[in-house]
Design brief:
The structure is a homotetramer of 217-residue chains.
Chain A (H helix, E strand, L loop, with lengths): L9 H9 L12 E6 L3 H4 L10 H16 L4 E6 L10 H6 L27 E4 L10 H7 L4 E7 L1 H14 L3 E5 L3 E2 L3 H15 L1 E3 L1 H10 L2
Parallel strand pairs in A: 1-2, 1-4, 2-3, 4-5, 4-6, 5-7
Helix pairs in contact in A: 3-8, 6-7
């Protein structure tokens, strides 16, 4: 199926290019990987927010393998609220009732073990979609001298898109390997990839990302 | 024409509700109005980013009239960079080349006179899509005791959407009167309204917003 | 002993008042309590950062009692870094080597049990001095409709002062009950109280804070 | 005169070093200069906030000369509020009544001409003490690949200190050439230099900063 708002519609893309969008940011010298919400709440199909993310998981593991070989900084995120939901707050719980389930310490927010998170790869419990909002992620990246973030995980139209926007806002080069992000809604996935590529970062093929990482230094 | 990713698709909406999105945030006690980028660069069809925003302008003026009668805080935004584009930065100018045109003091970034901005309604020169990023808008709103933001202006899929997300992130109730926002791309407009209503704020009819404002106090 | 830079020096105070500092912010309608770093690393005299904070602890417990009677929001902080110290970062560990000891899950960063933290009183692991930096505290307070923060804990010249500045920056009224904050350095304590009262919030007597809380509603 | 809380008190310094403060951050690869509030409101002795800053001005001009020779990014700040003081807000105007005078477009907030600001050196109108609060300065610095900020200007205990703290918070190396900062209050100046050197950045001699800049590349 094709979608009216999609990266793969050449006419739409031309419209955006004419309006001064869709430039290329390219790679900087010092990339890091942000792995967004690869936890049970999103990857278990029995969960309210869950979808089939197995192919995404495989692609993420590939990116992690290449990044670890290069010794790149890697940061994982999940979402987690305190028992009283104060870190969510009344507006967040009203608009997105699934927030009520994302409790600190619960199995639901635990990362998928296939990711093999290491001790020197921080896990950040973020309170909103963007990995940068209400967290210390930006300072971590500045401290590591990072100028490029490879964003992978779920969901394309939610936490991935918001994280890309935040990275762009801070003048970090954002790279999204297309096969390493996914969404429960195919139409939202298509629209978000278009938006990300037009406004925030370069949506590219997984193999191009892996090839670039392998040729670093 | 209908769009695959649209607020008006009842099946899509049901999918989102089932996943714990699309709750209602409703009105708080103390609303403010954020008028996003109603300046020549966006509303003049001869401009690179321009589109026909005359109907939007009329709706925005209606909202301003009702808000001024109630003495609500009103903040206007436009985008503006220094001559060296340092406040844009290399990533922003690479991804969105139209940024190079948004220079401080230029006619392009001047608000439309029909808005009738008053001296006690601040004009904020924001550097990114969200009215909250790299500006003092949040502190202004906290200082005024605001708990609700009515977001109007252009473009739905860009600065309006990002401003809604930031408001939501800070636990402000976000209200978007549908007729008072627009976008150069109809498919992007449809997808963004769906996203805003699902995740960040309540997309409602202009007449309902006006009616609510008129009954305050 | 008296200090050259102290709140209790009437001449210094006059100099500041003449320069347009030292106004009163007063109480708003909706206070919350921020309890800063009342954990073993700061209150155990055997610790590198520790000092005798028993009198401070008693005063903090008094404030908590009055606040709980009124059902006010209460947020506790401590400092905690990931094992690789990425959330500290190279600059932070270089300038303040004690940061290396503040590891997530360690006994050192555990709150003092006398505080009796309840499940609906969030504990925030902050990465820097201010309770607001790199955390979601501001959004929590906005979500609760808070307009006033009572700041208590340690150390006056470090995390307390920085938290007061952040609250002020966001247009929250900051109240510091003098007996409920302390510092390992008496000269730093004196200078910080002067600074806070001149620039960020009202330094007041504990009994006045307790009296105000008891008369609410 | 000596002050009880001063950088030049070796015993106080030892106490701080023992508590894990006062490490050296040193120089990174890519410095920028932040020139804080060298405008009439602070440097004209007839102004409410003014003090004699002529020696400071000379030192700042020296730093600018060396930085311009190396082509380093330079950002200037001043403070400026909208006519309705919404960007100040009720708490800020209550605590620091001098804020009411800092109006956009007034002569009072204009930079000293001796600084010779160039078109490619942005001037940021900041709303609070820190150059980073409510502004886009951090994103500018990330976009320029900056890892070190040389902070100069006035006042040591106010805007300089706060800017140093923000830089440190974001893992930027902060360098303060001692002769290039000053304060209307000598006791506040002494206490702030001690605090900055203990917690946020390296307070060093002007000649050492100039020598370092001249040997770059």
């Amino acid at each position: 199926m094709t979608y009216a708002h999609s990266l793969d519609d050449p006419e739409l893309r031309r419209l955006y290019e004419d309006a001064g969008f869709c430039g290329r940011v390219g790679w900087g010298r010092a990339p890091a990987v942000l792995v967004i919400d690869m936890a049970n709440a999103w990857t278990d199909r029995g969960e309210q927010l869950g979808s089939d993310a197995e192919a995404t998981l495989t692609a993420v593991v590939d990116v992690l393998g290449a990044a670890r070989e290069q010794g790149l900084p890697i940061v994982f995120t999940t979402m987690a609220y305190d028992a009283a939901l104060m870190s969510a707050g009344p507006v967040v719980t009203a608009k997105t009732p699934h927030s009520r389930l994302m409790l600190q310490g619960s199995d639901r927010i635990r990362l998928r073990p296939e990711l093999g998170r290491r001790d020197d790869e921080p896990l950040v419990e973020k309170p909103r979609a963007s990995a940068f909002f209400g967290t210390n992620v930006l300072s971590m990246l500045v401290g590591q001298g990072v100028d490029t973030v490879i964003v992978v995980g779920v969901s394309t139209s939610g936490c991935v898109r918001s994280t890309c926007e935040s990275g762009f806002n801070h003048n970090l080069r954002v790279i999204v390997p297309r096969e390493a992000v996914s969404d429960r809604s195919p139409s939202a996935h298509a629209a978000a990839l278009m938006d990300i590529d037009a406004r925030f970062g370069d949506v590219t093929r997984l193999e191009d990302v892996l090839a670039h990482l392998r040729t670093m230094r």
